[in-house]
Amino acid sequence: MSKTASEHKSTVPTNIGFSLIIISTSRFEAMKLKETVVDPSGDLAIDLLREVGYSVVSREIVSDEDTMIKASLGHALENPSVDIIVTCGGTGITPTDVTIETLEPLLDKTLPGFGEVFRGISYIRIGTPAILTRATAGLIGGKAVFCLPGSPQAVELAFKELIIPEAGHIIKHARG
Fold first, then answer.
1. Is the dihedral of CA 118, 124, 125, 129 positive or negative?
2. Spatial CB neighbours of 68, under 8 Å, sequence gap ≥ 6
3. 35: exposed, middle or buried (Cβ count in 10 Å: 0-12, 13-18, 19+)
4. Whole-number Cα distances in Å, 78 to 42, 59, 84, 107, 165
5. Domain boundaries, the chain
6. Whether 102 contacts 69, CB under 8 Å
7. pLDDT, tens digit (0-9, with 9 covering 90-100), for 33-90
8. Domain 15-175 has CATH 3.30.70.270
């Protein structure tokens, strides 16, 4: 790590609140029917964040629909305790994957390096299927937004390798 990056990281906020938005029509439908909802990616994200002392302010499961995604994002953006919003799901290329189309136009600034590095690490681990993800990140109103694939492996990679190590640094600069 460079001297400048080390200096920046020495003064970053450590009390960071996360909002998780799980984008899954099947889980949302099960939840509506009051069935047991199994969400291994959301559970894993919470465990990883709590291990490092970050708080999970909210967790919501929504369907793969732009209006529901935007509404959930709006709630997270309005919450002063939320610094980082992470979506899990809807980043692939099927017709129902609409997370990127829904959220990318709302970003004030993009963090293209996130998606690039995420896909690079994914390629090393899983090979050419890594090109199917459109994982992305950016800022909205001084809050970071990360859009991840829905698999537990993707969540683990993103949180352990990228989001957790840089969370404070990103928020420090986002707040300006």
1. positive
2. 28, 62
3. exposed
4. 21, 14, 12, 15, 25
5. 15-175
6. yes
7. 999 999 999 999 999 999 999 999 999 999 999 999 999 999 999 999 999 999 999 9
8. no
